């Protein structure tokens, strides 16, 4: 397994050092950043996108629960706290584990095993292709949707994110176009160019275009250019 990237959000420098000492026995975990309050932690997590978060609960101004509520993409979370009264609440936030300070090394090792098992399950799940009837959850700001794959007609690069077009809506998701392409059913979705993937079921008109390219017409008067390099593969996909 590749290195598991982890972030520590903990206001106590001593507690951060104790965690790093425990992690010396687990070289598969790589600490890529530390923060001593929620706001710093929020910026760090969004910037680094870690696999794992070691999170204290009681911190100045905002607590660990508030940090999780702020995040769109929550890493695997292990709470580290001196107080046991938050245990039930922590699992309402889908925490993987809850470690009481001072943290016992054996108990810590058990938590790390849970992390590895969880990540392996995710790898297996992510390797499975979606089909048209699968639904995906999309959250963009305050809006949420459950969208069937068959209702999506275009994925388009938008900076470091991807814009999804479906029915009368469009939304931004944090996955790359390459990650999305790996999950889509190949018989229905086609990589038109570097920045766009189309659902060929929604192609209602195809026109010859400049330099051997093709122009595909999609709903909402959206036009997608298929590069010359991809045009022959597109024609082959649509032929008998």
From TrEMBL:
<protein>
    <submittedName>
        <fullName>LytR/AlgR family response regulator transcription factor</fullName>
    </submittedName>
</protein>
<feature type="modified residue" description="4-aspartylphosphate">
    <location>
        <position position="56"/>
    </location>
</feature>
<feature type="domain" description="HTH LytTR-type">
    <location>
        <begin position="136"/>
        <end position="240"/>
    </location>
</feature>
<dbReference type="Pfam" id="PF00072">
    <property type="entry name" value="Response_reg"/>
</dbReference>
<dbReference type="InterPro" id="IPR046947">
    <property type="entry name" value="LytR-like"/>
</dbReference>
<dbReference type="Pfam" id="PF04397">
    <property type="entry name" value="LytTR"/>
</dbReference>
<keyword id="KW-0597">Phosphoprotein</keyword>
<dbReference type="InterPro" id="IPR007492">
    <property type="entry name" value="LytTR_DNA-bd_dom"/>
</dbReference>
<feature type="domain" description="Response regulatory">
    <location>
        <begin position="5"/>
        <end position="116"/>
    </location>
</feature>
<dbReference type="InterPro" id="IPR001789">
    <property type="entry name" value="Sig_transdc_resp-reg_receiver"/>
</dbReference>
<dbReference type="InterPro" id="IPR011006">
    <property type="entry name" value="CheY-like_superfamily"/>
</dbReference>
